[in-house]
Structures are given as structure tokens and as C-alpha cells.
Amino acid sequence: MKKLLTILIGLTATGLLLIGQTNEKSSKGFVMDKVVKSDKEWETCLTPQEFQILREKGTERAFTGEYYNHKEDGTYICAGCENELFSSNTKYDSGSGWPAFFDALDETKVKIKRDLSYGMVRTEIICAKCDSHLGHVFEDGPKPTGLRYCVNSLALDFVPIK
Ligand SMILES: [Zn+2]
Fold first, then answer.
1. What is the distance in A from the centroid of ligand 1 to the CA of 56?
2. What residues are labeled active site?
């Protein structure tokens, strides 16, 4: 009888433990696998132009990128880690010479950070997965968000809808 009781207590404890773990997971929400590389590693997998934009927060010259006037249907992914960032559904022609989106694919895909470089107050867009610089977000975009995600073509790759 004592043995049975011990087993029962044991089972209950295991059950509680499992429930506890499930709760912990759901309360943490979505956790993204981070891509972490040294500058040396980034240099080997990016072109020098991509490295300058993604890792040194550069900006390509307006109207020179591959995607500012690109109108195909599909998904724009991070050139550094292939994280899906923007949908062609939210792309619009801002006239600025860079690809512009009024929303990210998902708010977990990008991070937003205050950027005070070059004597300007701007809001930087960073890939949430590999921390690469993508561009800047401005508050002069169209409805419904009023935002303009202004992204370097060199920070993006494009996956067409099949
Ligand atoms: Zn990335």
C-alpha cells in the first residue's frame, strides 16, 4: 500500500512537472533560432557590398538596387540568414529609390532600434534572426500602418510565389 502511494505521488508530481513545462513554453511565446557569426564568417558568406550594408549599417545609393522597382509576387527574405521579412503584398512605390513596405511580414521577424548615426534621428530596422541592418522605418507610409519600411535591396533576397 505504501509502495502504491509512493507511485501515485510520483505520477502526480511528474504530471505537475509536465504541465509546468507546457505553461512555461507557451508563456515564453515564439522563440527564434538566432544566427550568430563573427565578422570573419560574415565576410566569407556575403559580398563586400552586402557586408557593408548588413554588418556595417551602410546604405546603397537610391535607384541602384535590384528591388526598388520590383513588382513580382513573393516573399523578401534576409540576405544574411534567409529569415522571411516582407511580403510583396505590403510593397509599394514610395518614389524614394529603395524598396518600401508598409508592414513587416510578422512583428517577430524584425527589430526596431533608435539610430543616431550621421547626425540624424532615425529608426533602424534589424533582422530579428541575425541582427543584420536592413534599413530604416519612417512614419510617412500609406494606410493602414502609416509606416514606410525603407529597406536596402542588398539586404534582401527574393523568393517568388510558385
Ligand atoms: Zn537575417
1. 14
2. 150
